[in-house]
Amino acid sequence: MTKEEKLIHELEVMSPQQLLADLSKGNQASAQDMKVIRDVMTSQGLPAPVMNVLIHYVLLQSDMKLSKAYMETIASHWSRANLKTAKEAMAFAKKQQRTNYKPVKSRAKYRQYRQSARVVPDWIKDDHEEQKNNKESISNVNAQKGKRRAASFYQSIRRK
């Protein structure tokens, strides 16, 4: 059996409570987590193996956090898809992941667009302009000092 087949088998035979305990390295699942799972299972009519896949999927997608709203959204989608087994649920989740995947290029364009549309408060603009003017005046003073030093150096060489 492959790792995926072993996982599917485990998800088919264990209860959601056992799954949460296994994913928590043996710690007992919290009462709140179990309430969320019960509510979602009963409201959406998902069988235990599909619920196990859903729990596993949600925890992996949300950095091991069990979000009720996120779980309900996916559960209602899976319920409409009429999933009955862990294998069906895993295949469906993989298919959705592939279709929802967007290349990095489009994300970069979105970020670039989002950054350009930012509104910068006047007080920040004023501060930046003031700093820019200060830098320019300091560089002008330094340039003038450098010119004076160079001129005095050349004059001292000419005198000799």
TrEMBL record:
<feature type="compositionally biased region" description="Basic and acidic residues">
    <location>
        <begin position="124"/>
        <end position="135"/>
    </location>
</feature>
<protein>
    <submittedName>
        <fullName>DnaD domain protein</fullName>
    </submittedName>
</protein>
<feature type="region of interest" description="Disordered">
    <location>
        <begin position="124"/>
        <end position="160"/>
    </location>
</feature>
<feature type="domain" description="DnaB/C C-terminal">
    <location>
        <begin position="26"/>
        <end position="91"/>
    </location>
</feature>
<dbReference type="Pfam" id="PF07261">
    <property type="entry name" value="DnaB_2"/>
</dbReference>
<dbReference type="InterPro" id="IPR006343">
    <property type="entry name" value="DnaB/C_C"/>
</dbReference>
<comment type="similarity">
    <text>Belongs to the DnaB/DnaD family.</text>
</comment>
